[in-house]
What does this fold into?
Amino acid sequence: MQHVAKEAATARLAIPPAYEVVVDRLRRTILLSVYGPGDKFPPERLHAEQLGVSRVTLREAIRVLEGEGLVEARRGATGGVIVLDRHVSVDALRRRLRESLADLKGLSDFRLANERCAAQRAATRITAEQLDGLEASISEMRDCESVAKFRAADSSFHVGIAQAAECALLRRAVEDARIELFTYLDALDYELVLRTTISAHSRILDALRAGDPKRAGRAMERHLTTTWDEVLAAIEEPAAT
It folds into this structure.
């Protein structure tokens, strides 16, 4: 066993090309709704400077994202790199939900464990500025008029709590679970779950403002359990005719 461990420790590193690292970063920003459909990436020169890479590397990454159907590079004065709306019919999403139910249940359990922990940790660490950010995301959700805006506000709230938990691995886990669930949850009619989600987020925020870890954890658990029940209900909806 020790021999195997030594071999692993001395194995040659497989270092990915810089553009692959950029692709992963930008893909995550899209799947976490930092950039939504119709949004533009910053101008190329500025974007490359922000990421700390060359413009050539950024262009290679954009080509990969174009191939995945996530963005489109448009020319001209009003052009730029535009995030696309990858529309999938609700019926198709429900079929995918049914086909992937076991995997999704595992993801739901993974999400529940990590986000409950994040809420508990955040309750004793969150700043006034971060609390204001969560409040703002709830306000944005109240005013949202599309599933993309709903998803962006929801993502901002949950990732904001993970950030306040002050644990990089935990935040990564929360983000990864949201990315995996990204398109599946669009099978839910956001207008039907909007009121319950706003109410759940408000209860979580109240617990965080009170600095109560147990209450925050319970509120998050209740919210995500309800979300899973809504997923199951969406699967049972009759197909459109």
